[in-house]
Please model this.
Amino acid sequence: MGEEKAVPRHVAVIMDGNGRWAKKRLLPRSAGHKAGMKRMIALSEHVFDRGVRYCTLFALSCENLSRPQDELNALFSLFREYFTKNAQVLKEKSVELRVVGDLSALPEDVREIIRAGEKLTEGGTRGTLALAIGYGGRQDILAAANRAVRAGKEVSAEEFSAMLQTGNIPEPDLLIRTGKELRISNFLLWQAAYAELYFSEKMFPEFSDADFDDALKAYASRERRYGKL
Ligand code: IPE
Ligand code: IPE
Ligand code: MG
Model:
């Protein structure tokens, strides 16, 4: 029973380090992203096997959209491949796929495949896999604040949370960042207010299921106080 409780309901992952993983192997950055996607597919299955209900993966930030166009094109191709192949797989596993972020910089066909994948997997009961693409925490907060201003009324914290792109997804309990950097890089700024943070030195393509289990173990040993005694 105690063990059950120690599993975070929502784990968010900043999947960083693809480029450095590739560089170390004298490969192009796109090869790192490809390896990262392969790892992401396997890891997202493992996460739900561990009893996590919500998993949000940071795949592309708003700021990443200013990277060179050839890198972006490689990423868009990977998204195309991912959503084409995996939506059906997720449906069979009853995992609901959601995308948060501004997709306007993505090619039209990729946006359509993403929407189709969300529709196909809608209502999956095993868990929710949210991919953050073209996502920025500040942009998310700002858009919600502006919507509240336009509506001309003050909102409560609960109402504000519901207005964010993560809408009805509960706040993350555990936030993992791979790739050695010790920062949030504009991820879930509002939502992660009380998330437990876990940083891994592993580059994302080498962040194994066992490494994820280490993060779960660390989480289970944390005492969450929320400012109370
Ligand atoms: C994370 O890997 C994936 C994206 C941001 C698209 P990076 O591409 O940031 O990899 P590093 O940090 O350069 O190694
Ligand atoms: C954060 O990684 C975004 C994603 C992993 C999608 P970055 O590589 O963009 O972060 P910085 O530039 O090191 O802060
Ligand atoms: Mg990076």
